[in-house]
Amino acid sequence: MELFDKCLEYYPIVAEAKRTGFYPYFRALDTEPDRRVKIKGKELIMLGSNNYLGLTTHPKVKEAAIKAIQKYGTGCTGSRFLNGTLDIHEELEHKLAEFLKQDDCIVFSTGYQTNLGVISSLVRKGDVAIVDKLDHASIIDGCQMSYGRAVRFLHNDMADLERILAGLDKDCGKLIVVDTIFSMEGDIIDLPNVLKIAKKHKTRIMVDDAHAVGVLGKRGAGAADYFDLENQVDLIMGTFSKSFATIGGYVAGAHKVITFIRHQARSLIFSASIPPPAVATVLAVLEIIKSEPERRKKLWHNTHKMLKGFKDLGYNTETSCTPVIPLHIGDYTKAINFWHDLYEAGIFANPVIPPAVPPGRSLIRTSYMATHTEEDLDEALEIFEKVGKKAGVI
Questions:
Q1: CA torsion through residues 20, 35, 50, 57, sign
Q2: pLDDT given for residue 380 in this prediction
Q3: What is the pLDDT of residue 1?
Q4: Which of 109, 183, 241, 267 is catalytic?
Q5: What is the 3-state secondary structure (H, E, C) of 248-300?
Q6: CB burial class (10 A; 0-12, 13-18, 19+) of residue 12?
Q7: Average pLDDT of 155-182?
Q8: 104 pLDDT higher than 90
Q9: Does residue 263 carry a catalytic annotation?
Q10: Which helix (H) or strand (E) holds 66?
């Protein structure tokens, strides 16, 4: 087969989906990403965003980004390792480490690059990464980039995790890497038992708090805060593309470990640094997370309202208990048709189909913001009732 043959075979599938209006991806917004958006002039209730605290449009956040451009320009044009470190990068790392109750922190350009860089630099030949079967793709890819071995345990199954660790060489380096809120299922890792098992088998642990920081915990500091285990987690990783309202990623932990990552992570060393307006955005959001806990309270009010609403309607949300609420449809075609009907009725949600989920496990991923109003959510539930009954889902 000639190299590009695969592209020519794939193209007609995408072209036909676009022609018929059943292509759900790369849909350009005409407006800022808020609780309601417009696409080609059509208004939709946004239920497909990770903007959990609704801070992408906050005046203080916008002002901070604008001031950063005025002072530092638009970008650093180099990696953190060489010319791409500004004083606000260091300020952010210090404040994040303090917020997460860790010794030190390093900021990457994206969350994806964070997982790639951290895992591939730490897990070397002879080491083993132990990951949840439903961990994010960036964790899996980080394992593949490392020279170590990766082993996957059944989702949130502590007995299977115990079994796997018991079967490993007790003298090899071991790192458990788990999402804390799983991005499709919307459930929370059993962190207390993960830590208990890790300690028993002398295994280090890294948590991916991408969907948990700003959402979980008394202070909004993520899963370790939520379970009151901040002094027991070795590495806390997260992104700025959810609650922090911009782009980038970070990892926090012991100073000597972060120093090693800072000098070894290829995705850090060989990528341009996160630009000044993004850094300033995170600094502004961090202060809002600390000073406005009522946002988190409203987010959870909205979450509980929608979870109850979906269950009352008869939807299958499985183990979800967070602002990520999947509606399990099953069949791939049925899920795409369901998404299309939602879109036509005024809902922006995300269809998740194979290979992102196993065959027969297609779903509609919905997610909620602190800024959604009661009217938004009531209208959404009315639409879900109509569309669900028409599709025979409920």
A1: positive
A2: 98
A3: 83
A4: 183
A5: CEEEEECHHHHHHHHHHCHHHHCCECCCHHHHHHHHHHHHHHHHCHHHHHHHH
A6: exposed
A7: 97
A8: yes
A9: no
A10: helix 59-72
Q: Where are the domains of the chain?
A: 7-56+293-391, 59-291
Q: How far is CA 165 from CA 133, 151, 158, 199, 394, in A?
A: 15, 10, 11, 11, 42
How many Å apart are CA 368 and CA 316, to the nearest integer?
A: 17
Q: Which entry of 89, 211, 298, 372 is annotated as an active-site residue? A: 211
CATH 3.30.300.30 fits 7-56+293-391, yes or no: no
What integer pLDDT is reported at residue 175 of this predicted model?
A: 98
Question: CA 126: distance to chain centroid?
Answer: 29
Residue 255: active-site member? no
State yes or no: is 109 an active-site residue.
no
Sequence-ordered list of residues with C-beta below 8 angstroms from that of 38, at least 6 positions apart, any chain: 29, 30, 31, 44
**Would you state the structure tokens that stand for residue 39, as one six-digit string?**
């696409």
Query: Which amino acid, residue 161?
Result: L
pLDDT digits (tens, 9 = 90+) for 212-255: 999 999 999 999 999 999 999 999 999 999 999 999 999 999 99
For residue 230, what are the CA distances in angstroms to 102, 123, 187, 235, 250?
8, 23, 20, 10, 16
- Do 289 and 214 touch, CB atoms closer than 8 A? yes
Catalytic member of 174, 242, 298, 372: 242
pLDDT in tens, 20-39: 999 999 999 999 999 999 99
Q: Is the pLDDT of residue 273 over 90?
A: yes
pLDDT for the residue 355: 85
Q: How far is CA 272 from CA 85, 145, 245, 388, in A?
A: 10, 20, 20, 46
Indicate the CATH number for domain 59-291.
3.40.640.10
List the one residue out of 229, 121, 142 whose CA is nearest residue 180: 229
Pairwise CA distance, residues 221 & 215, whole Å:
8
Query: Contact 115/142 with Cβ under 8 angstroms?
Result: yes
Q: Would the pTM count as exceeding 0.85?
A: yes
